[in-house]
Task: inverse folding
């Protein structure tokens, strides 16, 4: 009977299910639209708040500054050129060929390795200071590439020498930006692809080394004193606690008695001759250096009737070693062309 009823009302049931499904789908779409609307409203509110803050601080130039720039264009360009010269002096490198660069590279790597050995700095085996791809291989026969990698060699040489003057113990890696041969453009396309030159040029270097906190501070301070503009772009530190032993000043190997040691485990009594021969077993003794208990038959007698122990000749020192991963950018301003410098006042 139920089957007959369903068959008779099948069309109605399908219609009701379709209506319910449509309402559910419409409700779901409405919910998505409301969520998107809320997101747009929040974004507009954030932009409105940022605009209000900018209007309050007035970051745009004043009318006086704009007028001064219009009236004294040549003066502004002269001041800008002086700022470029003072802020970042471009690195000048000689124009050399492939063979000459390979010779200079081999000599420089050998010199840097010897300097690291004299400074007691550990280097990986066959360390190439970031120039692994040019070991035994000539660079591309392109003057622009040779000039760039020669400049990179000068920067890495100076940065390495700065590390040698700090408390650096190990250099694990040095990286530089790869230099590729510029693609040759078809004739007549140079003008179409010409773009406005950038205000500055950036070249990135990476270093991984181990040093101490004072050593890292000195290295960063020395970077700021260089004639080139070297900027720290990224710095990652991992601290490792290290303990080691150093000799005591004026200490010499010898013996001292247990009664002369602070916190001696022996009884507080005046020494008497033959105390250890009275038949009473002597107590064990603690070595102040290792902290281990020494059996009675392993030590000798001191002059005051107590067992003699070795004199400590070293002390334990703890310090924090820093595993440093740093990225340094070389910033250079392109030189102002003579045509721009001779531009007449407007």
Result:
């Amino acid at each position: 009977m139920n089957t007959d009823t369903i068959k008779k009302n099948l069309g109605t049931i399908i219609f009701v299910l379709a209506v319910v499904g449509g309402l559910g789908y419409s409700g779901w779409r409405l919910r998505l639209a409301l969520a998107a609307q809320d997101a747009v409203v929040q974004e507009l509110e954030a932009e409105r708040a940022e605009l209000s803050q900018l209007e309050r601080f007035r970051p745009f130039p004043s009318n006086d500054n704009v007028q001064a720039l219009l009236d004294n264009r040549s003066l502004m360009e002269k001041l800008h050129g002086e700022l470029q010269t003072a802020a970042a002096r471009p690195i000048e490198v000689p124009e050399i060929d492939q063979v000459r660069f390979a010779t200079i590279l081999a000599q420089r790597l050998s010199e840097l390795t010897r300097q690291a050995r004299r400074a007691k700095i550990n280097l990986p085996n066959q360390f190439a200071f970031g120039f692994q791809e040019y070991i035994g291989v000539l660079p591309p026969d392109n003057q622009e590439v040779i000039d760039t990698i020669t400049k990179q060699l000068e920067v890495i040489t100076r940065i390495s020498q700065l590390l040698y003057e700090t408390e650096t113990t190990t250099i694990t890696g040095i990286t530089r930006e790869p230099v590729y041969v510029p693609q040759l453009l078809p004739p007549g396309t140079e003008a179409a692809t010409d773009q406005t030159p950038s205000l500055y040029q950036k070249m990135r270097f990476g270093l991984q080394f181990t040093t101490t906190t004072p050593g890292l501070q000195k290295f960063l301070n020395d970077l700021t004193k260089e004639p080139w503009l070297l900027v720290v772009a990224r710095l990652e530190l991992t601290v490792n606690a290290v303990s080691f032993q150093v000799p005591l000043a004026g200490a010499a190997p010898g013996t001292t008695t247990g009664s002369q040691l602070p916190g001696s485990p022996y009884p507080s009594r005046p020494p008497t001759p033959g105390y250890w021969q009275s038949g009473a077993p002597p107590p064990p003794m603690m070595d102040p250096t290792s902290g281990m208990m020494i059996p009675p038959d392993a030590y000798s007698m001191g002059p005051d009737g107590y067992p003699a122990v070795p004199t400590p000749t070293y002390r334990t020192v703890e310090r924090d070693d820093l595993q440093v991963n740093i990225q340094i950018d070389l910033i250079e301003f392109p030189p102002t062309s003579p045509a721009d410098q001779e531009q007449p006042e407007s």
Residues 98-179+200-245+321-341 form a domain with the Alpha-Beta Plaits fold (CATH 3.30.70.60). The mean pLDDT is 75. The first strand starts at residue 170 and ends at 176. DSSP finds nine helices and eight strands in the chain.
